[in-house]
Write a structure and sequence with these properties.
This protein is an all-alpha fold and 225 residues long. It has one domain. Helices cover 68% and strands 0% of the residues. The protein contains nine helices and no strands. It is globular and about 70 Å long. F-type ATPases have 2 components, CF(1) - the catalytic core - and CF(0) - the membrane proton channel. CF(1) has five subunits: alpha(3), beta(3), gamma(1), delta(1), epsilon(1). CF(0) has three main subunits: a, b and c.
Amino acid sequence: MMSNLFSIFDPTTNLFNMSINWLSTILGLLFLPYSFWLLPNRHFMLWNFIMNKLHNEFKILLKNNYFNGSTLIFISMFSFVLFNNFLGLFPYIFTSTSHLSLTLTISLPLWLSFMLYGWINNYQHMFIHMIPQGTPPILMPFMVLIETISNIIRPGTLAVRLTANMIAGHLLMTLLSSTGSNLSYFFILLLIFTQILLMILESAVAIIQSYVITILSTLYSSEVN
């Protein structure tokens, strides 16, 4: 039972036992050329509106008064995670963001780059940030220890938060759907209604978690400036 349940997160396929399912990670790139090939429509205008909103918000958090590559990096990160979260809701499409191997690949290099930049260029600011203003002298060593630990676990918390939220919804939907063959007609209708509600919830989670990992990364970046 448990092996069949977690088989939906198996990155391997039956074709030569290779991890071909990871190719679904780049499926989001197929949507990008539509903005150049098709005339602007409501979906394109909505996507542009979202990107502009994110750009303005990230620009404030990053303390930039003009457009540069920093906001583009985080907007691209949001788009990448959002596409993978949404595509994982479709049948027979592998959810790559449900694996720590991908989420850690996103969060760990970002965190390392923030730490290296901060300690090399703004080391005084980094030291000041480790001790909040007004901390009693007797508590300063403990505050340094707590802030150090909180900084170290940041990439892990970013990765685990995204992975756990993607796994939880998929597991719940799989558990409910596996009981359908043993239910009566009335409970099958109730199960279908519950699955529809769960799908709406998972769609919201896919958007929210994309925004959360991006906004937290932006906040971590703003701390080293």
